[in-house]
Amino acid sequence: QLHLVESGGGLVQAGGSLRLSCAASGRTFSRYIMGWFRQAPGKEREFVAAISWSGGRTDYADSVKGRFTISRDNAKNTVYLQMMSLKPEDTAVYYCAASRNSYSSGDYYSPNEYDLWGQGIQVTVSS
Strands, DSSP E only, in 1-127? Predict the structure, then answer.
């Protein structure tokens, strides 16, 4: 089973950039779909991005498309979320998560489809 740890969050001005990392322990990292979610105060946890086992397929929420990029390095057991042109509405706790689903099933948008979660990391974008 994987253990996930996020890093790279912090405070940034609007228009700035951050890169989140999620390091996974465990030998089967490459067998998991990896996703990023976020949760703002008083709101439900929402899908941000997902990436297939090989990294060849990705998907994004409309709100971040064109600004965020998800990638993974299976040799390093790490998934990344490069965030650019950040907006105050991107402020949230960001979580990485792992799912055993098949990417072709399309079942990676809901938090319920993920088996494992990191502890979350705060991203704050000031205006």
Answer: 3-7, 10-13, 18-25, 33-39, 46-51, 58-60, 68-73, 78-83, 92-99, 116-117, 121-126
First to last CA, the chain: 40
pLDDT tens digits, 72-116 = 999 999 999 999 999 999 999 999 999 998 888 888 999 999 999
Tell how strand 121-126 and strand 10-13 pair up: parallel
Summarize pLDDT for 27-74 with one digit per residue, the tens.
Answer: 788 889 999 999 999 999 999 999 999 999 999 999 999 999 999 999
Is there a contact between 125 and 90 (Cβ–Cβ < 8 Å)?
yes
